[in-house]
């Protein structure tokens, strides 16, 4: 049986871990655990399911608003930290790097690696789950630090990959190919790799020779979605909508790959002044040029566009100026249709959420949707990269047909329950964990689980 030896720094005692030992504490590692970005959302879901399975979860991040008693925040681990941003800006768009840049990267790597040792020692972590930190090189020193930490300790690791650097054009030209090969992702025997779609699994194998499990984005379909209550009943009013307005919801960040101009064109072509397009998120980490383009395009087509991300928070709260802040899940119940015209998605968190809230969907048939979602039988209005009159007519007819909307959204919810529920996630996580700790069921429970 393989043994994992953790050799900690001189001041620490040496610990020996075996695959036979039941893991108790799990540590998630990410550049950011805050807000409603896809990585934070999926980390929260995995954590919730693992806690239900009996594990205790702890968190290491550069920025976080999660439970302070269980979270270590290291500012230098955030991808937008000034030092990190300077390093990252100098790593891409060129083919050679000065030795000073190499030194800066290694200096920060050492600091972050020490912080990882402190984190694991403090919470007695038995397994780590880097969340996209070994996937996309938004923070090269952190990826190197995690890789070295794994190499030095042999700690059981589930590397959760959301989007790889070869999927983003801005990382194509770079002066760090050695670091990318080493850590994004690293080929370590104590790592199990997890991707969120089947094309990523095939591409990872082709490029690196590494195998991976597929665990798509999941939702708690076993629990009925929340509706409109005394707190969120004011969402429409706070968004500036009239009671009889038709709310088209774009529940994404404002970045170019979301294809939001298609949603604007749809609203324009429906010629219904009551339809308002609401975008719930900020522009994100890819600049503001696309947001400016979207605002200008909506103005040119005379489409009522509402962008109020300041109203959306991870939890319900009151802002400093005394106004309500809502969760994204407070907004979904008010939506009449969800627009999801993305050009590319790793999987589709917002798509699953719209299914969960039983909302009709307009979807661009991005590649992952075509391969991993559409074949399951979901019923949606689809487009192929651009808006056609047929798409406009389908939306118009659907808005006039409540019975059809009910049938469509009920079918989708049942398929979500079947393929993307927490029960499915728990089963897949158990399979991963058995690889590290074996099958642990005390007493007679083992026989009960094996009994048909």
Automatic annotation (TrEMBL):
Gene Ontology MF: a single term: glycosyltransferase activity
Protein name: Glycosyl transferase group 1
Residue ranges constituting the Glycosyl transferase family domain according to the UniProt record: 235-413
Keywords of the record: Transferase
A family per Pfam: Glycos_transf_1
Gene Ontology terms: biological process: lipopolysaccharide biosynthetic process
Keyword Transferase on entry: yes
Xref: CDD domains: GT4_PimA-like (cd03801)
């Amino acid at each position: 049986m393989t043994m994992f030896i953790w050799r900690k720094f001189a001041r620490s005692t040496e610990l020996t871990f075996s695959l036979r030992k039941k893991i108790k504490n799990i540590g998630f590692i990410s550049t950011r655990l805050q807000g409603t970005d896809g990585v934070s959302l999926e980390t929260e879901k995995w954590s919730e399911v693992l806690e239900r399975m009996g594990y205790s979860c702890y968190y290491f991040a550069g920025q976080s608003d999660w439970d302070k008693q269980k979270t270590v925040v290291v500012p230098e681990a955030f991808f937008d930290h000034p030092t990190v941003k300077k390093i990252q800006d100098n790593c891409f768009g060129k083919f050679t790097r000065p030795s000073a840049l190499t030194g800066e990267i290694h200096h920060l790597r050492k600091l972050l690696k020490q912080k990882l040792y402190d984190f694991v020692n403090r919470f007695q972590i038995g397994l780590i789950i880097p969340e996209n930190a070994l996937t996309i090189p938004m923070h090269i020193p952190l990826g190197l630090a995690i890789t070295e930490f794994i190499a030095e300790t042999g700690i059981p690791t589930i590397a959760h990959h959301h989007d790889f650097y070869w999927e983003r054009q801005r990382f194509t030209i770079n002066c760090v190919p050695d670091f990318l090969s080493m850590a994004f992702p690293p080929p370590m025997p104590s790592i199990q790799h997890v991707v969120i779609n089947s094309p990523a699994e095939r591409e990872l194998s082709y490029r690196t020779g590494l195998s991976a499990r597929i665990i798509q984005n999941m939702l708690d379909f076993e629990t009925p979605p929340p509706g409109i209550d005394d707190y969120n009943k004011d969402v429409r009013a706070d968004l500036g909508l009239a009671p009889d307005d038709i709310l088209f919801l774009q529940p994404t960040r404002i970045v170019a790959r979301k294809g939001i101009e298609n949603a604007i064109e749809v609203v324009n072509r429906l010629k219904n002044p009551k339809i308002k397009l609401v975008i719930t998120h900020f522009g994100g980490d890819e600049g503001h040029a696309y947001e400016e383009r979207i605002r200008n395009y909506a103005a040119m087509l005379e489409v009522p566009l509402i962008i109020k991300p300041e109203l959306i928070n991870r939890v319900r709260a009151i802002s400093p100026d005394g106004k309500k802040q809502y969760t994204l899940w407070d907004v979904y119940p008010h939506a009449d249709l969800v627009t999801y015209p993305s050009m590319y998605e790793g999987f589709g968190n917002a798509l699953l959420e719209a299914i969960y809230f039983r909302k009709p969907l307009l979807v661009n048939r991005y590649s992952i949707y075509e391969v991993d979602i559409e074949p399951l039988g979901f019923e949606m209005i689809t487009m192929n990269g651009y808006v056609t009159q047929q798409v406009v007519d389908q939306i118009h007819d659907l808005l006039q047909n409540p019975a059809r909307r009910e049938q469509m959204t009920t079918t989708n919810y049942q398929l979500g329950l079947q393929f993307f529920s927490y029960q499915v996630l728990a089963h897949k996580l158990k399979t991963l964990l058995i690889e590290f700790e074996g099958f642990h069921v005390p007493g007679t429970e083992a026989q009960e689980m094996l009994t048909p």
